[in-house]
Amino acid sequence: MRKNSIKNTRINTEVQHELSNIIRGEIKDPRIAPMTSVVAVEVAPDLKTCKAYISVLGDEEAQKDTLEGLRSAEGYIRKQLASSINLRNTPEIKFIIDQSIEYGVNMSKLIDEVNKKD
Asked: Which H, E and C letters describe the chain, residue by residue?
């Protein structure tokens, strides 16, 4: 696996920040849950593709609906991203559900249960 350069790290951070702003403030799709956050972004070094890891607070159905809503608004999001970030190429965004926050909460609950039994 290749290390990220400083330039790539900066681009990842900026794209993550702008995606968060676009999803939170500009998209009016009712399928997208209000508690949706961009956990991480990985932009390819050639700036052609981008993986956006999304966390959704809610059940399995809310996650599925949010992912569907984001995929349908992908063109609009990409256009807004192009207007807010000056890059040579605007990356094609692939949204991926990130379960790490939910996993962490469940593990914390299990640890608390074990500590109460002792």
From this structure: CCCCCHHHHHHHHHHHHHHHHHHHHCCCCCCCCCCEEEEEEEECCCCCEEEEEEEECCCHHHHHHHHHHHHHCHHHHHHHHHHHCCCCCCCEEEEEECCHHHHHHHHHHHHHHHHHHC
Q: CB-based contacts of 11: which residues, under 8 Å, 6+ apart? A: 43, 47, 87
pLDDT tens digits, residue range 48-101?
999 999 998 888 898 999 999 999 999 999 999 999 998 888 899 999 998 877
Q: Identity (one letter) of the amino acid at 3?
A: K
Which residue ranges form the domains of the chain, and what is each CATH number?
A: 6-117 (3.30.300.20)
